[in-house]
Design brief:
Pfam families: CBM_48. GO terms for molecular function: hydrolase activity, hydrolyzing O-glycosyl compounds. With 223 residues, this protein is an alpha+beta fold. The chain has 6 helices and 11 strands. The protein folds into 2 domains: 69 residues, no CATH class; 148 residues, Immunoglobulins (Immunoglobulin-like, Sandwich).
Length: 223
């Protein structure tokens, strides 16, 4: 008997789908060893059918449902969805950049305090603004006074210093550039990149640290 036919006939025998003549014909074709194994298997299955059925504990159902419960969206997914809803904030991200940018940041316009006979300077530090796009995140506004700039971007450890994502500031008048985005609680280093070349720290940051290249980075801590 071919293997495939034997397997099919064996399964029908074990499922008790054969009539007595078919069972006798199958057993007659088997060797003594095969016949003994098949009979023993059928007897074992019959014994299992008579075992008492123990109801599953209620905790099992809860555990199974917890295991198949949809997972909370990742920070990357929430970031992508938030950016899609706010296209005017000037974010430019590549696919790889977006996958790595799981932190949210934000900046807010700073007030101007023109000095007598001197240029206008941004006079207030980073401030929280009323915008909460996701759990455990705050909206911040960063601003930079740079009247001669053609472009200003925010870079920091939250976006790979511009290698993963670039946050563009927009001119808000009087030489001030600013942008607002959400940032989870944490401590971050950042700087401004003016005209794509000049590294500028935030003079009004709460703290400054020097990086490995001797540049001053601003520090902001969100609690």
């Amino acid at each position: 008997m071919k293997a495939s036919l034997f397997d099919e006939a064996r399964q029908r025998y074990l499922d008790q789908e054969m009539n007595p003549s078919e069972e006798a014909a199958l057993l007659a074709r088997l060797s003594e060893t095969e016949r003994s194994e098949l009979l023993a298997t059928r007897m074992a299955l019959a014994a299992l059918e008579h075992l008492p059925r123990i109801p599953a504990p209620a905790s099992l159902a809860r555990g199974v449902m917890a295991a198949v419960k949809p997972k909370r969206q990742s920070a990357f997914t929430r970031l992508r969805q938030w950016l899609e809803r706010h296209p005017l904030l000037g974010w430019e991200l590549s696919g790889a950049a977006l996958a790595a940018s799981v932190l949210f940041i934000a900046l807010a316009p700073l007030s101007l305090a023109p000095s007598v006979g001197g240029p206008r300077q941004a006079s207030s530090p980073l401030t929280l603004v009323s915008h909460t796009p996701g759990p455990s995140s705050n909206a911040l506004r960063f601003s930079l006074y740079s009247p001669q700039a053609h472009s200003v971007a925010l870079i920091g450890d939250f976006n790979g210093w511009g290698s993963m994502a670039q946050v563009k500031l927009v001119p808000s008048g009087n030489g001030i550039w600013s942008v607002t985005v959400p940032l989870p609680a944490g401590r971050y280093q950042y700087a401004f990149l003016v005209n794509g070349q000049r590294w500028v720290t935030d003079p009004h940051a709460e703290q400054h640290v020097k990086d490995d290249f001797g540049r001053q980075n601003a520090v902001v801590t969100i609690i």
